[in-house]
């Protein structure tokens, strides 16, 4: 080996050693930087002959499959967290089936009040107690309906916010694609851009699930899990949505979750919010409205004093039941003013009927017993409510509360499972991409030794040259 070849090798060795030191320093400096993937350097030959110089090939340590699994788990966690975020306040208001303030408990309390009134129908105190219990039930149902509407508004706002965050992320991916195309293939040039891409995709993963594909030009293509293209090169679609129905569209293509024949998303926070707006909240609202309908119709049919079109004990904001005004009925449920003394009514109508014009005999129980029987008969239920085809009012109220509380319980169980999976994938991903300070410090010791060895070679070569020159 010639002196010049040895000199080239030693000099390139110093250059490689300097590059390795820079990589280690960068790794240590970015150990806590989100989205940063560890850089490693591999020493390679810079030529094809014996004694050629050496070079440093930089490698960004990533595992795309593991990163994809992590983002999928994050999307599942994001979807499972939505019911708790949206329904927490409403379900606290609704209460458990046995809670004193729940509609189910208030309904049972009113039924017990009617039983007491049946034992002494002429007692003004018993009449007043029954009315107070009826008002307690109405208040619990209208409060639940109002709070549910607030939850729907919250879900709609979160839905719009998620769409905005997703569109920003998709635009950022497209912009990074344009920069990656210009940066070339060198990891030294693209490493920072790839870290930005990783952070963008991780943030996007909590909002929606997606698939990725790296193209030959270095850009990343994004699709929904159903196959709808989201980003291609420097172009990104814009997602739009309807926060009343939960519909989601990508440049006119329906990407709403669970649409027959759709090519949409299936998990993520946006999917969870879409399900809340399209299915869960409307069904909960219908269940409340069905309970209100059962009470209004039941007590209208049981009231022997009413003419067609007259309102019964329970009313739709003072009016009789109107089938075309079912939506939101629970929020309009009210006691008939004709039985409310503070509105000019009379308590004795609980005994004699809402349309009675004069008090009947104090001991008559015919009308009260008819009211009591309302709770004994099974009534038809809208199948869309998801609580069966028929049920007695008390059973339906208990099922309603239990069913709605179970939405949160089931979601919490899914969230816990997703959290476990996410933690596992993140730990595995960190082992591949993360920076271990102890390992990097050990590398510095190796680099120091390599630097010393190359310096010694250069020093020896310098001495040899000096000796040769002095001998001339």
From TrEMBL:
This is Flagellar hook-associated protein 1. Belongs to the flagella basal body rod proteins family. It is found in: Bacterial flagellum; Secreted. Residues 103-301 form the Flagellar hook-associated protein FlgK helical domain. GO terms for cellular component: bacterial-type flagellum hook; extracellular region. It comes from the Bacteria. GO terms for biological process: bacterial-type flagellum assembly. GO terms for molecular function: structural molecule activity. Its main location: other. Keywords: Bacterial flagellum, Cell projection, Cilium, Flagellum, Secreted. Coiled coil: none annotated. InterPro entries: Flg_bb/hook_C_dom, FlgK, FlgK_helical. Residues 434-470 form the Flagellar basal-body/hook protein C-terminal domain. Pfam families: Flg_bbr_C, FlgK_D1.
């Amino acid at each position: 080996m010639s002196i010049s070849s040895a000199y080239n090798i030693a000099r390139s060795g110093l250059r490689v050693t300097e590059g390795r030191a820079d990589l280690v320093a960068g790794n240590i400096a970015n150990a806590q930087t989100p989205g940063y993937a560890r850089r490693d350097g591999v020493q390679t030959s810079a030529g094809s002959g014996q004694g050629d110089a050496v070079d440093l090939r930089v490698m960004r340590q990533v595992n795309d499959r593991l990163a994809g699994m992590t983002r999928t788990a994050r999307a599942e966690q994001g979807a499972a967290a939505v019911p708790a975020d949206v329904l927490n306040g409403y379900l606290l208001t609704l209460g458990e089936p046995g809670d004193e303030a729940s509609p189910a408990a208030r309904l049972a309390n009113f039924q017990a009040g009617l039983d007491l009134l049946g034992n002494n129908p002429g007692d003004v105190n018993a009449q007043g107690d029954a009315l107070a219990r009826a008002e307690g039930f109405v208040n619990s149902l209208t409060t639940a309906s109002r709070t549910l509407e607030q939850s729907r508004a919250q879900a709609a706002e979160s839905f719009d916010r998620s769409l905005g965050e997703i569109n920003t992320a998709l635009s950022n991916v497209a912009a990074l694609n344009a920069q990656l195309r210009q940066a070339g293939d060198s990891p030294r040039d693209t490493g920072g851009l790839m870290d930005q891409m990783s952070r963008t995709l991780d943030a996007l993963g909590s909002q929606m699930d997606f698939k990725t594909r790296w193209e030959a030009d270095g850009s990343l293509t994004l699709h929904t899990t159903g196959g709808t293209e989201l980003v291609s090169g420097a172009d990104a679609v814009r997602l739009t949505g309807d926060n009343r129905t939960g519909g989601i569209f990508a440049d006119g293509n329906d990407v709403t979750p669970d649409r027959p024949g759709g090519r949409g998303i299936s998990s993520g926070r946006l999917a969870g919010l879409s399900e809340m707006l399209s299915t869960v909240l409307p069904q909960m609202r219908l269940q409340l409205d069905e309970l209100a309908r059962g009470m209004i119709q039941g007590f209208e049919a049981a009231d022997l004093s009413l003419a067609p079109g007259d309102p019964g004990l329970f009313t739709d904001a003072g009016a009789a039941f109107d089938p075309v005004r079912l939506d939101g009925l629970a929020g309009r449920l009210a006691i008939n003013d004709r039985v409310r003394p503070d509105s000019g009514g009379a308590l004795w109508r609980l005994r004699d009927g809402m349309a009675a014009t004069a008090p009947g005999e104090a001991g008559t129980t015919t009308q009260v017993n008819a009211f009591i029987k309302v709770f004994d008969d099974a009534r038809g239920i809208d199948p869309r409510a998801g609580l069966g085809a028929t049920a007695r009012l008390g059973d339906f109220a208990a099922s309603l509360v239990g069913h709605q509380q179970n939405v949160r319980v089931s979601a919490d169980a899914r969230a816990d499972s997703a959290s476990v999976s996410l933690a596992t994938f993140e730990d595995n991903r960190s082992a591949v991409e993360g920076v271990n300070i102890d390992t990097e410090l050990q590398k510095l010791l190796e680099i120091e030794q390599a630097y010393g060895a190359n310096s010694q070679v250069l020093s020896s070569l310098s001495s040899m040259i000096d000796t040769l020159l002095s001998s001339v």
